[in-house]
Structure formats: structure tokens, C-alpha cells
Specification:
Blueprint (H helix, E strand, L loop, with lengths): L1 H38 L3 E2 L4 E2 L5 H5 L3 H34 L2 H12 L6 H12 L4 H8 L13 H25 L3 H9 L4 H12 L1 H17 L1 H7 L7 H9 L5 H24 L11
Antiparallel strand pairs: 1-2
Membrane topology: Multi-pass membrane protein
Protein name: Spermidine/putrescine transport system permease protein
GO biological process, one term: transmembrane transport
């Protein structure tokens, strides 16, 4: 009787609080992942999924054509991440050290693009960078070029689109790390004779490295799968792992192979997050958004 009373007083309220969250995660996270994993071992007759176990889908992942796309995906993700770090770190540093009013304005500027759909924003860039767009018109009017430059449908355009979409994902973790930086350590470094470059390399950068690593994870992983950026800015010329998944589920109607590609992408994510944790990263930093 006492145990039942104790359950009602302590355990029952806890379960009432946790259960909805647990149910939500099971229905919208765990169940779909289990389904995709199960689907990746099935076959297809060209039109429908056949419930016949096979490892052919995973063997197909080693197709030389797909290996080339993997390499292209990692190259694009690498340069996207590097560009986000190079542009994001100064922005985050300036925002962290700004006064309260200026910091709020900078944060608002960073977050306003999230209020508009990504596809609309990318099509805006497509209009600006086209042969008859504002950018080419400006260069022509200034006499810097004789004919419009082909900017769209190149690897550089895809990287630009990726950086534009993912820039906040790099800035926010960096801002969180830089904002906690003890400025007295920087002053001590200067007092000991270190110039700005040495102070940054030996003090600032190591202390803010958790933000760099968190931002890298948050930018690099989506860069592998944002197929719509490649479609709009690259005209489908720069294929990503995300494009492979999209094509198999839609055009090729080969859901099992698409599921195998999805599991490959999930495996990459797990490996990167595991490496991040092994290097001392805090998983809470990956939830800045």
C-alpha cells in the first residue's frame, strides 16, 4: 500500500512529464529511422518494394560513380565549412564584444533570414547572379567586364548558397564561446609581450575551439545533404549525397537504395559526432539553435 502511494506521489508525475516527450521521439525519430534501416535491406522489382532480404543495396554504395559524388560532397562541405569559419569568426567576435544595443541589432540581422523560406532566398540569389542579374549589370556598367560572367551553375555558386544558408549555424556556437571568453587572459598575454596574432593563436583560438568544433559539425553535416542548394545554385551539376537520396526516392523509384544512402549519411553523422565527443566537445553546444 505504501509502495503504491509512493508511486503515485513521485513516479507518476515524473512519467506524466516524460512520457509525451518520449512518445514524440519514438513516433517521429526512432520509428522512421528503424523503418529506413529495415527498408535498406529490401529489394525492388523496378516499381515496388519487394520484401526480400538483400545486401545488394549496400554493395551498390561502392559503385565508382557514387564514390565520385561522395568525394564531391566532402569537397563542397569542406570549403563551405572553411568559408563559414573565416567569415563567421570575425562576425561572432564583433557581436560578442559589442554593446548591448549593437549586439541585439547584429543578432537580429543574423536571424531575420530564418523568417523567410530558404528556397525563396536562394532564388533571390539566382536572380541577382544571373547573366542579366544585378551583379553582372553592375560589372558591365563599371566597365570591369565586356560580357556577362557565368556565376550560376558552378561549384562556387553552390558553395555561396551553402554559406548563405548555414552561416548562422557557425556564428551562434562561436558567439556562445567567445561571449564566455575571459578578457583578463588576453590582457595578460599582451602584458607578457605577445602581439595580437600570437594572442589570438595561443589564447583566443584555443579557448574558443569548442565553438569552432560545434559550428563545424553544424555546418559540415547539412552541407552533405542540402540537395536543393545544389539544384538551384548549381543547376544539378554538383551532385551531393542528398541528391542521391532524392533521386532514388523520386526519379528512380528505388526506395531501398535510397534508404541505404540515408543510412550512409546517418553513419557519417554518428562518426563525426563521436569524434567531436572524443575530443572533449559538449553535446549541449550542438543545440544552440
Amino acid at each position: 500500500m505504501k509502495k503504491s502511494h509512493k508511486f503515485r506521489n513521485k513516479t507518476a508525475p515524473l512519467l506524466a512529464t516524460v512520457s509525451p516527450v518520449t512518445l514524440w521521439l519514438i513516433l517521429l525519430v526512432a520509428a522512421p529511422l528503424i523503418y529506413v534501416f529495415f527498408l535498406s535491406f529490401l529489394s525492388t522489382d523496378g516499381y515496388n518494394v519487394v520484401y526480400k532480404f538483400t545486401l545488394k543495396n549496400y554493395a551498390e554504395l561502392l559503385n565508382p560513380t557514387y564514390l565520385e559524388i561522395y568525394a564531391n560532397s566532402f569537397i563542397l562541405a569542406f570549403f563551405t565549412t572553411i568559408a563559414c569559419i573565416l567569415f563567421g569568426y570575425p562576425f561572432a567576435y564583433s557581436m560578442a564584444k559589442a554593446n548591448k544595443r549593437k549586439k541585439a541589432v547584429m543578432m537580429l540581422m543574423l536571424m531575420i533570414p530564418f523568417w523567410t523560406n530558404s528556397l525563396i532566398r536562394l532564388n533571390g540569389w539566382k536572380t541577382l547572379l544571373g547573366k542579366t542579374g544585378a551583379f553582372n549589370s553592375l560589372l558591365l556598367n563599371l566597365g570591369l567586364i565586356d560580357q556577362p560572367v557565368e556565376i550560376l551553375y558552378t561549384r562556387g555558386a553552390v558553395i555561396l548558397g551553402m554559406v548563405y544558408i548555414l552561416f548562422p549555424y557557425m556564428v551562434l556556437p562561436l558567439f556562445a564561446s567567445i561571449d564566455k571568453l575571459d578578457m583578463s587572459l588576453l590582457e595578460a598575454s599582451k602584458d607578457l609581450g605577445a602581439n595580437r596574432a600570437k594572442t589570438f593563436l595561443n589564447v583566443t583560438l584555443p579557448l574558443t575551439s569548442p565553438g569552432v568544433f560545434s559550428g563545424t559539425i553544424l555546418v559540415f553535416i547539412p552541407s552533405l545533404g542540402y540537395f536543393f542548394v545544389s539544384d538551384i545554385m548549381g543547376g544539378g551539376k554538383s551532385q551531393l549525397i542528398g541528391n542521391l537520396i532524392e533521386n532514388q526516392f523520386k526519379a528512380a523509384n528505388n526506395w531501398p537504395l535510397g534508404a541505404a544512402f540515408s543510412m550512409l549519411l546517418i553513419a557519417i553523422i554518428i562518426i563525426m559526432v563521436t569524434v567531436y565527443k572524443k575530443t572533449g566537445g559538449d553535446m549541449k553546444d550542438l543545440g544552440v539553435l
